[in-house]
Amino acid sequence: MNKKIVIGQVKSAYGLKGQFRIQTYTEEPSNIFKYGAVLIGEKYTGVILNKHKSIKNGFLVSCEQIKTRTDVEKIIKKNIYIFSNQLPKINKENVYYHDLMGLTVIDKNKNVIGKVISVSNYGSSDIIEVDLKEKKEKILIPFNKNCVDDFDTKNSFIKVKNIEGYME
């Protein structure tokens, strides 16, 4: 399935001629310009962002579809998207966060623990948030070799190990 992936957001207008500030969510901020055509909100598709200059926390950009400050004011706080098929291909040992969402988390005996509801990184490693099947609570599990034995996005599972301390 070709999912929409948020890669940035329109932050504010700049001037009167349709320029606007964007914030990027890509690992390398300038990568936002490498994906080709993007979507802005639900209204604008096939948008090619033209970079004017780097600014604090983002870039000053323009595009063909948005010509005036009034046009820009309608897209402030709108997300900038690409489709998942625009992302570079990666090897099996790596995975995009959005591919982990909704995967079933199982233990070594193939017992279902729950489902992944979010993925974060606070600096030391990636963390998956799992909505537990048997309880009305959530747990955080490091997504690393110490806690993840295997994962398969095609068959929709993550097999975990050494998580007893996280389940208390």
List the helices and strands and how they pair.
Layout lengths: L3 E11 L4 E6 L13 E3 L3 E4 L2 E6 L2 E5 L6 H5 L5 E5 L13 H4 L3 E3 L5 E10 L4 E7 L5 E5 L5 E5 L4 E4 L8
Parallel strand pairs: 8-13
Antiparallel strand pairs: 1-2, 1-7, 2-6, 3-4, 3-7, 5-6, 8-9, 9-10, 10-11, 12-13
Description:
There is one protein chain. The longest helix is centred in the middle third of the chain and has 5 residues. The protein has a seven-stranded antiparallel beta sheet with strand order 4-3-7-1-2-6-5. A six-stranded mixed beta sheet has the order 11-10-9-8-13-12. It starts with a strand and ends in an 8-residue tail after the last strand. It has two domains: 83 residues, RimM (Elongation Factor Tu (Ef-tu), domain 3); 71 residues, SH3 type barrels (Roll), CATH 2.30.30.240. The chain is mainly beta. It is elongated and about 60 Å long. The protein is built from two helices and 13 strands, in the order E-E-E-E-E-E-H-E-H-E-E-E-E-E-E.
